[in-house]
Amino acid sequence: NRPERITCVEDLRQLARRRVPRMFYDYVDAGAYTEATYQANQRDLASLNFVQRVGIDISNRSLTDTILGQQVTMPLALAPTGLTGMQHADGEILAARAAQAFGVPFTLSSMSICSIEDVAQATSAPFWFQLYVMKDRAFIERLVARAHAAGCTALVLTVDLQVQGQRHKDILNGLSTPPKPTLMNLLNLATKPRWCWGMARTSRRTFGNIVGHVDGIEDVSSLAGWVAEQFDQTLSWKDVRWLREMWNRKLIVKGVMTPDDAQSAIDHGADAVIVSNHGGRQLDGAPSSISALPTIAERVGQQAEVHIDGGIRSGQDLLRARALGAQAAYIGRPFLYGLGAMGQVGVRRCLEIIHRELDITMALCGVTNIKDVDPSILTTGADPFR
Ligand code: FNR
């Protein structure tokens, strides 16, 4: 399992499946209900064909760009993912370090195992922080202030999880609130010694953004009930305005799937929107995020940056998203597979693979600068076999 023998994101997924306890692997590799939207995200990306171009000098190529003014080595970021520290001990810290070393942004989830302060202390460049709006608004104010104090340069406000889509596997695995691990899952732990050993050394960390920061929430069991009833179903655009007034750095609204919602997010102060169906984990039956992208980019692309996530598994997919109007794309599961497979080295490998795929694919499309990518690199698909 030397990193150079891992040649695609799927290899990382297979290795993670072997190394991560089943309940946490399933937590990552699942979508809501029938998983139709989870599957559509990848399938619709894969169905977009490139136009092969030749006879162009492609010897000098550049993938560097900016996301909200920040320099990046390619237009990719790591998506916020909860419980990342359960894929690998200190998972958030390792993923943040790998992202920084590579030169792409890392987004820390509200539901992380390591806290904002843990990650800030263990890294040297700024990262982004993702926020869920909870009923306890005083807690949210404190959390935003902590992200500010830690130097986070962007706040990613997720607006598509005020009620939770159901994942069948999580229920069967006892990954509910509160957690009820099954006997099978406890036995499964015995087959993952490397994971257990890592966790045994870092067990002091638990939901560091919340535990110890809310009265009465001192451990995971008291946390579970609190979180379950805290997601605020009254969340509306005026809360986006409220956060905009509280936060003087970049504000990104995550989870819009229509041009009207994207416009509202921008009207209420967002610097960027993320076209996202939460990786198919929320509204099962929603269209893929790539199919929603073009009309949103057309409507608001001149006013704010349009980003996307969902189903990006390769540099080819990143290029497709870019061609259809996304300034940047995020990966969720791919970096989690890398983390579960090989820790920090696995996340780095994931980024290296996508970077190389992006470079080669762009070159074969006859484009030398990522900034010049436009829809003409994709066939219209009207009749590809004519
Ligand atoms: C997520 N996602 C997510 N989003 C968010 O805003 N806050 C969170 O805490 C989480 N947690 C989370 C956990 C896991 C295990 C996954 C897979 C996803 C959604 C995530 O940010 C992103 O939208 C999707 O992961 C993108 O789809 P892909 O790249 O996983 O296909």
From TrEMBL:
Q: Which domain of life is it from?
A: Bacteria
Entry keywords, A to Z: Flavoprotein, FMN, Oxidoreductase
Q: Name one Pfam family in it.
A: FMN_dh
One annotated GO biological process: aerobic respiration
**Record-listed glyoxylate binding positions:** Y27, Y132, R167, H278, R281
Kindly give the CDD domains that the UniProt entry links to this protein.
Answer: alpha_hydroxyacid_oxid_FMN
Per its UniProt record, the required cofactor names are: FMN
Q: Which InterPro entries does the record associate with it?
A: Aldolase_TIM, Alpha-hydoxy_acid_DH_FMN, FMN-dep_DH, FMN_HAD, FMN_hydac_DH_AS
Any one GO MF term held by the record is: FMN binding
Which residues does the annotation say bind FMN? 80-82, 109, 130, 158, 254, 276, 309-313, 332-333
Q: Which residues form the FMN hydroxy acid dehydrogenase domain?
A: 1-383
What do the Gene Ontology cellular component annotations say? plasma membrane
Catalytic residues in the record: H278
> PANTHER family annotated for this entry?
2-HYDROXYACID OXIDASE 1, S -2-HYDROXY-ACID OXIDASE-RELATED
Q: Which family does it belong to?
A: Belongs to the FMN-dependent alpha-hydroxy acid dehydrogenase family.
- Specify the protein name: Alpha-hydroxy-acid oxidizing protein
Q: Which organism is it from?
A: Aureimonas fodinaquatilis
